[in-house]
Amino acid sequence: MDPRYVEAVRRNFEVVETYWERSTPTFIVKTRGTGFRQSLLKPAFEVLSDELRPRGYLPRVRWIVDSYHVSILKREEFGVEDYRRNLILFVATVATVFLDGYIRSSNPVLTDALMKGTPVFVNALLFTFAIITIFGLHELGHKYVSMRRGVEASLPYFIPAPPGMGGTLGAVITQREPPVNRDALFDLGMGGPLTGFLVTVVMGVIGMRLSFVVPQRTVAELMMRFAEVRFQQIPLPIILEYIADLVKPTPEGYVLIMHPVAFAAWVGCILTFINLIPAWQLDGGHMIRALVGRESHKIISIAGVLLLVISGYMIMGVVVAFFLMREGAESIEPLDDLSPLSMSRKLGFFLYLLIMMLTLVALLPF
Q1: 158's torsion region: left (phi>0), alpha (psi -120 to 50) or beta?
Q2: Which positions ≥6 away from 359 have C-beta within 8 Å?
Q3: Distance, CA of 247 to CA of 237 (rounded, Å)
Q4: Secondary element (H or E) of residue 148
Q5: Strands 168-172 and 157-160
Q6: What is the C-alpha separation between 145 and 287, in angstroms, rounded?
Q7: How far apart are CA 120 and CA 304, in angstroms?
Q8: What is the pLDDT of residues 229-269, one digit of tens each?
Q9: Does residue 366 carry a pLDDT above 50?
Q10: Residues 6+ apart with CB under 8 A from 71
Q11: What is the four-CA torsion angle of 202, 206, 207, 208, rounded to 10 degrees?
Q12: What is the CA angle 174-178-184, rounded to 5?
């Protein structure tokens, strides 16, 4: 056994016995001076993990029969990351989002009536900036927490999409190794939606300030004047309704016509809501997994799929259900899956539920 991890284990735990589990060195341990008190396992294991990660090892703890077993795993070496693929996908996504925004901003209601003299490309650039900022900072929120937690993770991979779908299917980062415990798993899940939500609120304020409150009779005239334009009323989430009431009040007999930046904030709400669904490897799935554990996570994931369906996201519900049926589709298992979630994270679930409620965009009536 490598003396570097042997010494680290002995510094943080009372070692009862050592053995090899196939090719994996394993220690039967006690928390120092306290027998098997689980409350002291978490801090001791966190210190051990922080010591071993820089040395190229990851500890894992399990409860077998009546004792803690700490195994020492070799940490994978990733080398220097090549960012060319990230950059290519980012540039492609900026292009498709700009094209989508240009098409939306070419609406004659804007160009010929409400925003005469404003070049189409200006609104397209504003839309692109809003969408890329919301999606990008959502993923960078995950990346920041990963760095703080010492978890190896990639930079965001943006996913371009055809115009009409916002120009993007979002962005993802890949977690290359498990978090140390359930607290870290919760933080990894919450970092993205919380950051994305805050950015969406900012874009919502800007977008609503740029939007228009128009008398209904004017809307009727615009519908007759621009018969080729499809006027559609979209359901606003609670947070955008609140922002609109503060920034751009709509008196009775008037209609709110959203600027492309406000529409980007609407898309940001959908992104946040879907990611908070407690299912599969979505952000909400990670947080629920941190709270209830592996087996209950599978059951709650089914409820998450049903929530997607009744909220109007049928296709997304089918996709998540498909991946749930595949082996290994559950959320990330922490290295320490024995220690319960901290009280502060449990209280954080009230924030989780609040953001989920504020960003719900129901595409089907209840």
Answers
A1: beta
A2: 197, 200, 237, 238, 239, 269, 270, 272, 273, 276
A3: 15
A4: helix 120-149
A5: antiparallel
A6: 14
A7: 40
A8: 888 889 999 999 999 999 999 999 999 999 999 999 999 99
A9: no
A10: 21, 24, 25, 26, 27, 59, 60, 61, 62
A11: 100
A12: 100
Neighbours of 357 (CB within 10 A): 13
Residue 3 neighbours by CB under 8 Å, 6+ apart: none
pLDDT at residue 273 in the model: 97
Please tell me the distance from the alpha carbon of residue 43 to that of residue 354, in angstroms, as a whole number: 30
Planar angle of CA 107, 109, 112, nearest 5 degrees: 95
Q: Of 3.40.1350, 3.30.1360, 3.30.460, 3.30.750, which CATH number belongs to 3-74? A: 3.30.1360
| Paired tokens of 251 | 């008196």
Q: Please answer whether residues 352 and 276 qualify as being in contact, where contact means their C-beta atoms are separated by less than 8 angstroms.
A: yes
Burial class (CB in 10 A: 0-12, 13-18, 19+), 342: middle
What's the pTM?
A: 0.93
Between CA 211 and CA 209 the distance in angstroms is 6
Q: Which residue has the tokens 């359901």?
A: 235
Pairing type for strands 254-257 and 212-215 reads: antiparallel
- CA dihedral of 140, 144, 150, 155, whole degrees rounded to 10: 20
Tokens 């990230």 — which residue? 86
Strands 24-31 and 67-74, by their bridges, are antiparallel
| 13 to 32, 52, 53, 100, 179: CA distances (angstroms) | 5, 14, 17, 57, 20
Of 171, 167, 168, 135, which Cα lies nearest the Cα of 153?
171
User: How far, in Å, CA of 207 to CA of 209, rounded?
Assistant: 5
What residue segments make up the domains of the chain, in order of their start?
A: 3-74, 84-359
pLDDT tens-digit readout, 117-140: 899 999 999 999 999 999 999 999
Cβ partners under 8 Å of residue 115, min gap 6: 123
Name the phi and psi angles at 252, rounded to 5: -60, 135
pLDDT digits (tens, 9 = 90+) for 48-69: 999 999 999 999 999 998 899 9
CA 194 to chain centre: 8
